[in-house]
């Protein structure tokens, strides 16, 4: 699976880590948000996403609900991985611009 990772800090000091990617063996995109070591969002717990949601853009408003302004490169990278069925790739993304 590919992993695109973005780390940021909230205004109140919580460390957030977003991991999005494409799971090649299972053929789906995924997204998790971890805040201070606890999973606060997983596509597997989201009835609108699960393993059937294949549109990476679905996760943009999900991340915004957590106050996360993720960089466009995060979404673009996952879309490219999905299109080309890329696995075993890890990319760190910087702040949104």
How does this model look, in words?
By secondary structure, the chain is α+β, with helices and mostly antiparallel strands. It has one domain (2-85). The chain is 21% helix and 36% strand. The protein has two helices and five strands. The chain has a five-stranded mixed beta sheet, covered by helices on one side. Strand 1 and strand 2 form a beta hairpin. It is globular and about 40 Å long. The termini are far apart. The model has no long low-confidence stretch (mean pLDDT 92).
Short description:
This protein has 97 residues and is α+β, with helices and mostly antiparallel strands. The protein has one domain (2-85). It has two helices and five strands, in the order E-E-E-E-H-H-E.
């Amino acid at each position: 699976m590919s992993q695109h990772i973005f780390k940021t800090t909230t205004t109140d000091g919580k460390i957030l880590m977003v991991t999005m990617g494409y799971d090649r063996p299972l053929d789906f995109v995924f997204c998790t948000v971890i805040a201070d070591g606890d999973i606060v969002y997983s596509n597997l717990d989201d009835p609108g996403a699960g393993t059937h949601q294949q549109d990476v853009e679905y996760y943009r408003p999900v991340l915004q609900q957590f106050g996360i302004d993720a960089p466009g490169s995060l979404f673009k990278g996952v879309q490219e991985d999905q299109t080309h069925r890329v696995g075993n790739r890890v990319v760190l993304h910087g702040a949104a611009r």
